[in-house]
Amino acid sequence: MIEDVKYYAIAILAIVIGITVLRKMAGCVVRIIVMLVLLAILAALYYLYLQ
Fold first, then answer.
1. Helices 28-49 and 2-24 meet at what angle, rounded to 10?
2. CA angle, 43 as apex, 19 and 35 as ends, to 5°?
3. What is the rounded CA–CA span in Å between residue 44 and residue 2?
4. Are 11 and 47 in contact (CB under 8 A)?
5. Nearest CA to 42 among 20, 18, 26?
6. In b/e form, how buried is each residue of 6-40, taking b as 16+ CB within 10 angstroms?
7. Would you state the pLDDT for residue 24?
8. In this structure, which long-range contacts are made by residues 42-48, counting pairs with CB atoms below 8 Å and at least 24 apart in sequence?
9. How far apart are CA 24 and CA 21, in angstroms?
10. From residue 13, how far is each of 8, 19, 20, 45 by CA, in Å?
11. 5: exposed, middle or buried (Cβ count in 10 Å: 0-12, 13-18, 19+)
């Protein structure tokens, strides 16, 4: 139960930070790279915590 709460808290934090960073950056390529990094982090968290 606590592991699920940690996962969701980290996921929400990553999404909020990602949105904040994307608003401040200008390049489309940079936005794609940042989103790919965030998706990779979320996928890693999913596999580490939910398996």
1. 170
2. 30
3. 18
4. no
5. 18
6. ebeeebeebeeebeeeeeeeeeeeeeeebeeebee
7. 73
8. 42/11, 42/14, 45/7, 45/10, 45/11, 46/7
9. 5
10. 8, 10, 11, 12
11. exposed
Q: Residue-wise pLDDT tens for the chain (51 aa)?
A: 666 778 788 888 888 887 777 777 666 777 788 888 888 888 888 888 776
Query: What tokens appear for 36 in the block?
Result: 């790919």
With 0.85 as the threshold, say if the pTM is over it.
no
Return d(Cα 11, Cα 39) in angstroms, integer: 10
Tokens of 21: 């960073």
For residues 21 and 35, what is the distance between their CA atoms, to the nearest angstrom? 10
